[in-house]
UniProtKB/TrEMBL annotation:
GO terms for molecular function: hydrolase activity, hydrolyzing O-glycosyl compounds. The active site is at E400 (nucleophile). Keywords: Glycosidase, Hydrolase, Membrane, Signal, Transmembrane, Transmembrane helix. Residues 1-34 form the signal peptide. The keyword Transmembrane helix applies. One of its GO terms (biological process) is carbohydrate metabolic process. This is Lactase-like b.
């Protein structure tokens, strides 16, 4: 059956032929500079049994706002996400990250989980307002925040887990948003550079992998264009482009700071983590569809990667070009893309109309969790090969890849996640065989956590977190057992063994499910010991005192 007969329309985008902002011009320029990526060759192939290169790094990830909690503890300043999530109606169920997984108080427990998985690395982010409450370094540095990250880093290293640190995973200090308009303002470049410099100074003796930004696409588009994310601004047609422009400059500045002031001593690497869906042409024999699919990918990745790798950017070409020691790639899903063929209003420009295309999905693609997340493993291999051909085969760390579930009831037997990890890591292995320089893989995420505007309704974790219980206990899902096997075998030995892993993983999860089912009872017991017992004791003491006084009076 033809591909275009099997797809359904997911989202229709408006037609707009005259983008206003210079970035789009840049994107158009880079379309013509595409090298040898072959859009017409999509070989899905069968499952590949084999191993990853020796030294391949396996990890899991998290981010500060999504897991730490302790939003107002120990001198931390407010971030835009603290403020945004406290506004009614912004987040599913009005959830907030106030306490989230209580990761701030659970360093040892969580490193224990990483050890259980035998991870080689852990990717986390540093909360800017936890270190610098207003965001402006000369105002005040919060030593307690420094201490927290010191403990985390030291504990990871003691356990032979390499920390990979993101400097900005979306939690801008609120003060900078209020005073300057956040990423709409060029002054963020210097403030961010000062924050980064502080991190290099305090933690750089132990950190070898830094990432400036996580998924700047989302910061720009969802923060300043659609307003679904903090700071919730809807500056259609300009907001995303301006934010991205300042982010690219800030990234380059931080890279230069490291390069000139710290690299010789600390010998680390500075990269950026970019995220993008893969876009596959609906009809690979139609040039218009190929161009539309390429636009789709360029509007995700190329927007940031082209200036950083090729310097094809106005004014600051040489300053920005080459400011990436490695590329972080976050990837979850794929779309079919076709040329938009019904022109509509030209009046309202936006990032989405500028792309000038339509997205489609195949109804047969599994979609166990988030509405946008269809499991399409072959798209991952295509994306990795695209990065290789477009940006000169850079060193890649996969910084995010994973799948969520929506199921509200407690469910630890996540067979669909096992399938997702198995197939996506296998496509990554094929990409490595194709010659893509992937050095590490980060499963997203270690724990269930605050999923931005979706609150706690979407669970990405390898470990289930019981958010009803104030201690936020963690329980392994079946995928923990499976991922652990991939890590210990550094790949997929043979069909029989891999099927065995899966069977065993699903067997053990039912035991964990029983533990979790007993959790309301445990919480009840905790309430008894924490509230009822002290209250009864106090009352008994009071009553005895009254009774004693009564006896004494009677005697007198
Ligand atoms: C990308 C974001 O960086 C991450 O924070 C989020 O949890 C995942 N997407 C899943 O939506």
């Amino acid at each position: 059956m033809e591909q275009n007969q099997t797809v359904t329309v997911l989202q229709a985008q408006e037609y707009h032929a005259a983008p206003l902002v210079c970035h789009v011009f840049v994107l158009v320029l880079c379309l013509s500079s595409a090298e040898d990526f072959d859009w017409t060759k999509n070989d899905h192939g069968s499952f590949y049994y084999g191993t990853f290169p020796a030294g391949f790094s396996w990890g899991a990830g998290s981010s500060a706002y999504q897991t730490e909690g302790a939003w107002d503890k120990d001198g931390k300043g407010l971030s835009i996400w603290d403020v945004f999530s406290h506004k009614k109606g912004k987040i599913q169920q009005n959830d907030t990250g106030d306490s989230s997984c209580e990761g701030y108080h659970k360093i040892k427990d969580d490193v224990g989980l990483m050890k259980e998985l035998k991870l080689n690395h852990y990717r986390f982010s540093i909360s800017w307002p936890r270190l610098i409450p207003t965001g402006i370094k000369s105002d005040h540095i919060n030593e307690k925040g420094i201490q927290y990250y010191n403990e985390l880093i030291d504990h990871l290293l003691e356990n032979k887990i390499t920390p990979i640190v993101t400097l900005y995973h979306w939690d801008l200090p609120q003060f900078l948003q209020e005073r300057y308009g956040g990423w709409q303002n060029i002054s963020m470049v210097n403030h961010f550079n000062e924050f980064a410099n502080l991190c290099f100074e305090r933690f750089g003796n132990r950190i070898k992998y830094w990432m400036t930004f996580n998924n700047p696409w989302s910061v720009a588009v969802e923060g300043y264009e659609t307003g679904e994310h903090a700071p919730g601004l809807r500056l259609r047609g300009t907001g995303a482009y301006k934010a991205a422009h300042h982010i690219i400059k800030a990234h380059a500045k931080v890279w230069h700071t490291y390069d000139t002031q710290w690299r010789a001593k600390q010998k680390g690497l500075v990269g950026i983590s970019l995220s993008g869906h893969w876009g596959e042409p609906v009809d690979i024999s139609n040039q218009k569809d190929i161009e539309a699919a390429e636009r789709y990918v360029q509007f995700y990745l190329g927007w940031f990667a082209t200036p950083i790798f090729h310097g094809d950017y106005p004014q600051e070409k040489s300053y920005i070009k080459g400011t990436c020691d490695f590329l972080g790639v976050g990837h979850f899903t794929t779309r079919y893309i076709t040329q938009k063929n019904h022109p509509s209003a030209r009046s309202s420009s936006s990032y989405f109309t500028d792309r000038d295309l339509a997205e489609l999905v195949d109804p047969r693609w599994p979609d166990p969790g988030s509405e946008w997340l269809y499991s399409v493993p072959w798209g991952f291999r295509r994306l990795l090969n695209f990065v290789k051909s477009q940006y000169g085969n850079p060193m890649i760390y996969v910084t995010e890849n994973g799948v969520s579930e929506k199921i509200q009831c407690t469910e630890l037997c996540d067979d669909w996640r096992i399938q997702y990890f198995k197939d996506y890591t296998n496509e990554m292995l094929k990409a490595i065989k194709d010659g893509v320089n992937v050095k590490g893989y980060t499963a997203w995420s270690l724990l269930d956590k605050f999923e931005w505007d979706e609150g706690y309704s979407e669970r990405f974790g390898l470990y289930y977190v019981d958010f009803r219980n104030k201690n936020k206990p963690r329980y392994p899902k079946a995928s923990v057992q499976f991922y652990k096997r991939i890590i210990s075998s550094n790949g997929f030995p043979n069909q029989r063994e891999v099927e065995n892993w899966r069977r065993k993983a699903v067997e053990t999860c039912s035991t964990s499910n029983q533990l979790l089912a007993a959790d309301p009872l445990t919480s009840h017991m905790e309430m008894v010991t924490e509230i009822v017992v002290p209250t009864v004791c106090t009352l008994s003491i009071l009553l005895s005192a009254v009774f004693l006084m009564f006896l004494l009076r009677r005697r007198n």
